[in-house]
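Milestone 3.1: sequence recovery, worked example.
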């Protein structure tokens, strides 16, 4: 994961190719510590390099949202590819707990 402060308490998370959402707990502690260090108030999770959001990846996003919520940090998913958004929408039974935006600039 690459975490980059982008100003105003916003932190950009770029997951990278090596991210394994099946081992979510391995990443959450580091993410929480980094958000505290950076005084993050809003996490922007960039999905531009994620071609498909399946049930496992959606669960990962929900875990991150839960972590953000208990830390007082908002979460917005950005740059979701149309195919990933469609597949996710077809698999979901309710609205996601996090917000979505077209891109970083629109947040």
């Amino acid at each position: 994961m690459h975490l980059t402060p982008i100003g105003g308490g916003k932190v950009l998370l770029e997951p990278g190719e090596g991210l394994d959402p099946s081992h979510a707990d391995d990443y959450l502690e580091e993410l929480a510590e980094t958000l505290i260090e950076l005084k993050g108030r809003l996490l922007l999770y960039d999905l531009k390099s994620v071609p498909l959001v399946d049930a496992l990846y959606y669960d990962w996003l929900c875990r991150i949202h839960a972590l953000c919520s208990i830390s007082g940090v908002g979460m917005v998913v950005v740059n979701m590819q149309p195919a990933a958004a469609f597949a996710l929408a077809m698999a979901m039974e309710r609205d996601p707990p996090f917000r979505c935006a077209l891109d970083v600039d629109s947040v």
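Residues 2-106 form a domain with the Transcription Regulator spoIIAA fold (CATH 3.30.750.24). The chain is about 35% helix and 20% strand.
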